[in-house]
Amino acid sequence: MSFLDKILGKSASPESAPDFWKYIESESDLDKAISESSERKVAIFKHSTRCHISKMVLKNFEREVQQNDGDVSYYFLDLLEYRPISNRIESDLNVVHQSPQLIVLKDGKAINHMSHQGITTSGI
């Protein structure tokens, strides 16, 4: 792995990620997240692995989540790898795409969304 890959976020792997993340890697995974929002709040973090700002925001958010104990399910979407799913989120949930972005779902609908340094657990 190159030095630039580490800086730009390519070194992030599921093995090194916090264990609270559920990964959205298919349409079915997105459907599960939307369905689960009927039981508890769901937060979907859309991350660009090529963006230094996105990486910084992700790390700050992960630290915040680990200090909170709310009843929230956290989903992670690599929007470069799964851009069609990101597009579906935009159209189905009526939330304009941004990166990085956190979208909060309840009862199958987006009830809040934030981007860049505005992403905090207090918005959930």
UniProtKB/TrEMBL annotation:
Task: Report what the protein is called.
Answer: Bacillithiol system redox-active protein YtxJ
* Organism, scientific name: Kaistella pullorum
SUPFAM superfamilies cross-referenced by the UniProt entry: Thioredoxin-like
The domain of life for this entry's organism is Bacteria
Please name the InterPro entries in this protein's record: BrxC, Thioredoxin-like_sf
